[in-house]
Prior knowledge:
Blueprint: H1 10-17, H2 20-27, E1 41-47, H3 54-61, E2 67-74, H4 78-86, E3 93-96, H5 97-105, E4 110-119, E5 125-130, E6 145-148, H6 154-165, H7 170-174, E7 177-180, H8 183-191, E8 197-201, H9 202-211, E9 214-219, H10 220-224, E10 227-235, H11 236-241, H12 243-262, H13 265-278, H14 305-317, H15 328-331, H16 355-358
Parallel strand pairs: 1-2, 6-7, 6-8
Antiparallel strand pairs: 3-10, 4-10, 5-8, 5-9
Helix pairs in contact: 1-5, 3-12, 5-14
Amino acid sequence: xxxxxxxxxxxxVVALVTLSSFAVACSGSSDEVxxxxxxxxxxxxxxxxxxxxxxxxxxxxxxxxxxxLNWIGDTTSGPQSIQNAATGxxxxxxxxxxxxxxxxxxxxxxxxxxxxxxxDKQSFNGYYVLDDSPIKTAKDLIGKKVGMNTLGAHHEFxxxxxxxxxxxxxxxxxxxxxxxxPPVNTEQALRQGQIDVATxxxxxxxxALERGGLRELFTDESxxxxxxxxxxVFRDEYIAQNKEAVADFVQGTARAIxxxxxxxxxxxxxxxxxxxxxxxxxxxxxxISYWKSPGVAGPGGTxxxxxxxxxxxxxxxxxxxxxxxxxxxxxxxxxxxxxxxxTYSPDSGADGxxxxxxx
Length: 359
């Protein structure tokens, strides 16, 4: 649920940025705001097959007042999702914060408005070796292969961060080979010896661990604890011209996130399953059964400086971003989030009520 997979690298995003002005000019869509008969602003977006995005949940819960969602298709690429938002092909998109920072550093005028995926003790990505693997420490990974779904995004950043924290030098880190392997094939690649470390999350992690024979090397949660890794973004121009619509979108999405943070898992699963079954996209609901938690650290998806500065610092250390070029406040705003702007207490439920009353 609620966390689209990533299928393309941030390098591809930067390459696409050079086409941004051309794409916007040709599409004519960046200035086109569609209204419903009753005056609601229509927001175009891309979904994720078999999953429910937080905005989709918000719409089903009736949390939007001034906006209506218009699904135009699915994406499996966070970087492509935010590129489409930046060029006006969609009105909002979401990706790993490192990709957001990268796109912003290339000159794309986008702003993160709410967190939407991350890791906690129930929902996380793990990095696994075979039980009899000689790999015990980060040093043992020199010259070895780590399989992940894409390069330049979440998993590459986390792996390189772990290697650096474990004391490897930049030259040693470069000797760890990162290999792109589709998530559905990652476990098999590990068991057949094609890779030495497998990146596994959600259904792929749970099913692999059920079969046994794997040992956890580390997890993203073990590095950062409960941490929001990705945010939803809008174009700056769109925010300026449609501030009320963006504000309504964020407040509704924040309340939907908070709803999952404060309701029992079985109730959340029932709601998500109902949404998928009712929207007529010919989808399987199997993925939903593996949902354990929202994986969003802040109440209602509020964003913290650290969730952005971590990746600004990382890119700066690696020579991919000029020191001092960006600061967290250049990337995100909590202005519209009711759990950050004083509308609701951060400890309240989806309607601003005390949690005791929400149970």
